[in-house]
Request: fold
Amino acid sequence: MIGIRDIAYFIPEKRVSNYDKKEKFDITDEFIKNKIGVETVAVKELNDSSSSLCVKAFEKLQAKTGVDISEIEALIVVTQNPDFTIPQTSAIVHGLLDAPTHCASFDISLGCSGFVYALSILQSFMTANRMRKGLLFTSDQYSDIVDADDKNTTLIFGDAAAVTLLTDEPAYRSLDFSFGTIGKSHRELLCSDKTLFMNGRAIYNFACKVIPDDIRALLERNKLNTGDIDAYLFHQGSKFIVDTMTKRLELDSSKVVFDIYDYGNTISSSIPILLEKQPPAASGQKILISGFGVGLSWANAILERV
Amino acid sequence: MIGIRDIAYFIPEKRVSNYDKKEKFDITDEFIKNKIGVETVAVKELNDSSSSLCVKAFEKLQAKTGVDISEIEALIVVTQNPDFTIPQTSAIVHGLLDAPTHCASFDISLGCSGFVYALSILQSFMTANRMRKGLLFTSDQYSDIVDADDKNTTLIFGDAAAVTLLTDEPAYRSLDFSFGTIGKSHRELLCSDKTLFMNGRAIYNFACKVIPDDIRALLERNKLNTGDIDAYLFHQGSKFIVDTMTKRLELDSSKVVFDIYDYGNTISSSIPILLEKQPPAASGQKILISGFGVGLSWANAILERV
Reply:
């Protein structure tokens, strides 16, 4: 059985403070702390790219686990900010890490639902092809596409990359996944002419209506109650979104993690960052992960500590 | 078991003739017919995009099979020419086709190896998630990025999309796959500032040295000889590439398909187009499919007629 063995992430050191933008956007401390829940956003160096952030995340994984790149049989990158459209960023990362020639690699284009989707995709691809060690990178740097005058986006998004090591000796196995798409609403979160547009209200409604219903259905078909889950790691869209989801699902708020005050919404990396920061769970403990956003697209999953 | 049930494709009607470019590029009829093997390239209408080509391919599939979109549980698009970088093209196609909300969707960014990779990815994803019907789109339109003065690319690439219906009642099942990447060479085929660059010599060497060796190894580990394969569907890079691969593998040339005189190298769609055009195989007959290109990346697979 393939599952998550370990995770590492790279968040750039540079921060831009939302408190410095209070006058510009006519916002309060209360709005910053309790509505968006982002005090500073992480911003990459100008010469960093999707691939270089992946490499920096991998260096952290290597320091933490001693993982040997020569044993990696699959390497995928989830990004919507690729270095180029041609070639795929995974090939660039493959080259930079000196991965083996017989390592499979491909990119997945998804936004905030990307990690949960890719976990299922890579697990099942590795299982079907009898692979034992794989790397799942998530890497997005919205600082390249955010309009500094757009309150809806510039206060929210931070840059980061994460890398998740999947092996046949996992720390977490996945019990079940659910997926969905509302493609007709794809224009609510869109990047055109290198500038990001987000209809915050539409994304909020999507996150707070569709996702809780789907989580309830996923738990039900696995004969679980919300109380059977030990931690809820929702995509960190904003504090307001996470708080509303918590209320809609009537969750014990101590089980719901919110963590992005210091670095912002890091898109596909938000969930692996939370998961890496989780205190070690006891065997059998369950974590629900939920990614939703660009597409509009979502993926929910139940993980169990092995 | 999930596998290929049916395939349809859309090749735009408009053609540009390479015979009209003989003087400009100082090339002969012999070069056009026997070296590149492309007499005319297919070119999309200006307002067509990756997503609209997918929709046109789907209309053909629907006419051919009567497939009901409401039964589709997964929809993926392989493209390196997405409508936007954000959102994924699969979400746009999902909306245009009015696919169900509980249909999973994502994009895969790969070039000429994309179909073979995606076949394994979608089969294993559907199997793991207990899905019964899925659509695998391939859609690329290099006419948007080809430099009309670049002989290496403008004479070769054509626009197309294909859609492959995967179900649990397949016509072809896959026996085995192999994958590989030479990421250090990713600059040999690259699109920067919306213009494609290809080092034709490097791609030729890659295709004609690395791929035949990998095909031999794949056959060996499945205890098959080259003679046990009934048809070879190589990615249609050029006639010279396909002919050289045929020689290197010492194949009976009547088993090797070359088909792109009329429409060109359609990247990720080249193999599904060939597969759709194959005469109905007898049960147990085997087809080898081989995709290679951008990355540099490749995927080989052995299919068997059910």
